[in-house]
Amino acid sequence: MRRRPFLDQRRPSSFKRRWQQRPWWFRLAVTLLLALACLFLLLALRGSPDPDPVVLPSTDSSRSAATTSPLLHQRSYLDGVTDAFNMTDEMLSAHSFSRQLMDQISLAKTYLVVAKEANNLQFAAELSSQIRRAQSILAHAAAHGGTVTEQDAEKVIRDMSVLFFQAQQFRYDSAVTIMKLKGQIQSLEEKSKAEAEKSTKYGQIAAEELPKGLYCLGVRLTMEWFKTTELQRKFTERSPAVQSNLRDNSLYHYCVFSDNILAVSVVVNSTTLNSMRPEKIVFHLVTDEVNYAPMRAWFALNDYRGATVEIQKVEDFTWLNSSYVPVLKQLQDAATQNYYFSGSGNRGTPVKFRNPKYLSMLNHLRFYIPEIYPELRKVVFLDDDIVVQKDLSELFTINLNGNVMGAVETCMETFHRFHKYLNHSHPLIRAHFDPDACGWAFGMNVLDLVMWRNKNVTGIYHYWQERNADHTLWKLGSLPPGLLAFYGLVEPLDPKWHVLGLGYTTVDPATIKEGAVLHYNGNMKPWLKIGMEKYKGFWDNYVDYSHPLLQRCFTH
Length: 556
Fold this sequence. Notes:
Layout: H1 14-21, H2 24-47, H3 60-68, H4 77-85, H5 89-92, H6 97-117, H7 121-143, H8 150-169, H9 174-208, H10 212-227, H11 229-236, H12 240-245, E1 252-257, H13 261-273, E2 281-287, H14 289-301, E3 308-313, H15 326-331, H16 334-342, H17 361-364, H18 369-372, E4 378-382, E5 386-388, E6 405-407, H19 418-421, H20 427-432, E7 444-448, H21 449-455, H22 457-467, H23 479-485, E8 490-492, H24 509-514, E9 517-519, H25 533-540, H26 548-554
Parallel strand pairs: 1-2, 1-4, 2-3, 6-8
Antiparallel strand pairs: 4-7, 5-9, 6-7
Enzyme class: transferase
InterPro entries: GAUT, Glyco_trans_8, Nucleotide-diphossugar_trans
Membrane topology: Single-pass type II membrane protein
């Protein structure tokens, strides 16, 4: 992998985005706290005694010095303030009743908020009444173009002062108020955190569930397969030409490993429909025992513009056993089973890190592609949650410059660098990998299988999987071990080849339009009800909902 200098390219609007994502009651509490702090600071400054004026002797020499001193010719800071805010003499007068009433109203409003927070409704009502009285006097004076007289203001100022004294007895002073608000903010933050954890948990559950329509489709396809011998013959009695296509390196070979029939169908359909030479496309599909028959039935029932489709099941790869595959060996360990399946492991670990799908062999089968297809030299690996929008044949002619993989880098943000995925406090990780190295994405990857075999990438993957048996190097998925296994062996591709984020975030429409492959990485897959509606259309374009089986399963 070509090393690039670290550039912190975080978007300047990240603080604004995080602030807007906070709940409304949290933003209100923070705003009140800041307002209180500013108000008490202004009151403290206003209440500070002025220094005694220095009386200069009235002599000719002193007057002469005053007129010649350059310091006395400078305007004071207060002069600038009064000019800037157009303050009137009444506002600046120490004996102005209007100013006293305005100051008392401001302070009373602050105490009013605190009284309501303390559930002291009677005191809050008295404050509200006095505020209205003071405002009425000011409004009357303004309407008649006069000033507030002592007779009008004396009783209101006196009554308000009594309430302020009472507020002090209630401990409504600035320090106590700020401490109370801090406590409330902390409580709100804890509630917000708890709600966020619930949302993550429920979102994860929704993402892991199999929609009723997909379950129905699998059942009906299984019935079709076993009752229709003609469908079975399409795969068992293939012509020699089709068999030779599976090993012909002049064709375009794609790999997809999945148990989702409809998702794989969209990948194949979108790839062939956007290809200029669909007859040269070969899809190598691998699924599990449960979906093997319905997957074959679906692709026997449908034609994809002459593309060749091979379907295998992972259970037939008998060499993938616990003596060879570290992931399968770890599954036999009681601690690993407890961590991933019982949920009784480390309670501080987020629920998504204990998702059993990340130990599925279909998820880790990507690290054994050269052994599954020993006669192939170059393939393009595709995830099942992608949609192809452009012709991908150019990928097979890209020069990888001696690297094993071509991938789109994802380090436009700092959280997609190595330190996000790996535990760099571990000495093994710290000694071998740069924490600021650029991450990349699985989902659309060009693989040079000849270089893969020469570099023994699968062996490197095994080494790091064995070191992570205790989950201390990384916690989640197949990407972290991929970053380690392909470290220094990745050729960066143009970002237009692989557009990510349609399953969890907002993506620029121009980027989507130019993208060759759209990836719904994240929990909000397009076939789920929690999928993002604005992006579902790109996926639905390649689903033929008029198909009889889809009509039966997806029409309620």
